[in-house]
C-alpha cells in the first residue's frame, strides 16, 4: 500500500536531511516498513520514485543473490561471496553501498554492484570507491571501525587503506597485521 499523503510529507522531511536524495533510501524503507509491516513491491516502486532511483537500485541485493544463485545470507558455491543485508554501513551519504571485507563501494548502480561481484569471483578486489567531496563517510572502513570502537584517531596504517589480494601467507590477522 503506498504511503499516505501525511506519511509522504514526513518522507520529504527525511529526504531533506541528506545532501543527495538517494542517501535517504534506508530511512524511506524503514518508513515504508513502519506503514505496512514490510516493504512491498509497490513500496519499492514508491521509494524509487521519491528518490530518483530505479526499482532495481532499491532492490539491488536481490540481483546479487540471483546472480550468485544463493538466498540472502547465503554464500555462493565458490565460497568467495556471501550476500548479506545489513542495517547500517555508516555510509548513508554514499548509498547504495556494498562492503567487501572492511571496505565500502559507494553509490553503486545495480550494474556496478554486479560488476564488483564478477571481479570478486575472478579473485580480484578493486579499490574501494569513495563518494564525492564533502562526504562524511570515512575513507577507510577499517579507520571507521577504529573510531567506532572508541579509540580516537586511527593509526596511519588504517587510514585510506585499500584492500590488497591476500596470498596464503599474507592473510590479515584480527589485530590488522599481515602474517
> Which of globular, elongated, flat, extended, rod-shaped describes the shape?
globular
- Average pLDDT works out at 77
Major β-sheet strand ordering: 1-2
> Span from first to last CA?
54 Å
Named CATH architecture of the largest domain: 3-Layer(aba) Sandwich
CATH class of the largest domain: Alpha Beta
* Biggest sheet layout: 2 strands, antiparallel
What is the CATH topology descriptor of the largest domain?
A: Glutaredoxin
Proportion of residues in helical segments: 25-40%
Helix and strand element order: HHHHHEEHH
* Uncertain stretches: 161-179
List the helices and strands and how they pair.
Layout: H1 5-16, H2 25-36, H3 41-51, H4 55-58, H5 60-68, E1 98-100, E2 103-105, H6 110-121, H7 141-148
Antiparallel strand pairs: 1-2
Helix pairs in contact: 1-2, 2-3, 5-6
Q: How would you describe what is shown here?
A:
The chain is mainly α. It is 38% helix and 3% strand. It has a two-stranded antiparallel sheet with strand order 1-2. It is globular, with a radius of gyration of 18 Å. Mean pLDDT is 77; it is low at 161-179.
Quick structural overview:
By secondary structure, this protein is mainly alpha-helical. 38% of the residues lie in helices and 3% in strands. The protein has a two-stranded antiparallel ribbon with strand order 1-2.
Descriptive key words:
179 residues, mainly alpha, Glutaredoxin, 2 domains, 7 helices, 2 strands, 38% helix, 3% strand, globular, disordered C terminus
Amino acid at each position: 500500500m503506498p504511503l499516505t499523503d501525511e506519511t509522504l510529507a514526513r518522507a520529504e522531511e527525511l529526504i531533506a536531511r541528506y545532501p543527495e536524495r538517494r542517501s535517504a533510501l534506508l530511512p524511506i524503507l524503514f518508513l515504508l516498513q513502519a506503514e505496512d509491516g514490510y516493504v512491498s513491491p509497490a513500496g519499492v516502486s514508491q521509494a524509487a520514485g521519491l528518490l530518483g532511483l530505479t526499482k532495481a537500485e532499491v532492490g539491488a541485493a536481490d540481483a546479487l543473490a540471483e546472480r550468485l544463485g544463493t538466498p540472502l545470507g547465503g554464500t555462493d558455491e565458490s565460497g568467495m561471496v556471501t550476500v548479506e543485508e545489513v542495517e547500517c554501513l555508516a555510509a548513508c551519504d554514499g548509498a547504495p553501498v556494498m562492503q567487501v571485507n572492511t571496505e565500502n563501494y559507494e553509490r553503486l548502480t545495480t550494474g556496478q554492484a554486479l560488476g564488483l561481484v564478477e571481479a570478486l569471483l575472478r579473485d580480484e578486489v578493486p579499490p574501494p570507491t569513495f563518494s564525492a567531496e564533502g562526504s562524511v563517510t570515512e575513507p577507510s572502513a577499517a579507520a571507521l571501525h577504529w573510531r567506532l570502537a572508541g579509540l580516537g584517531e586511527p593509526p596511519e596504517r588504517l587510514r585510506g587503506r585499500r584492500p590488497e589480494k591476500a596470498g596464503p601467507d599474507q592473510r590479515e590477522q584480527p589485530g590488522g597485521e599481515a602474517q
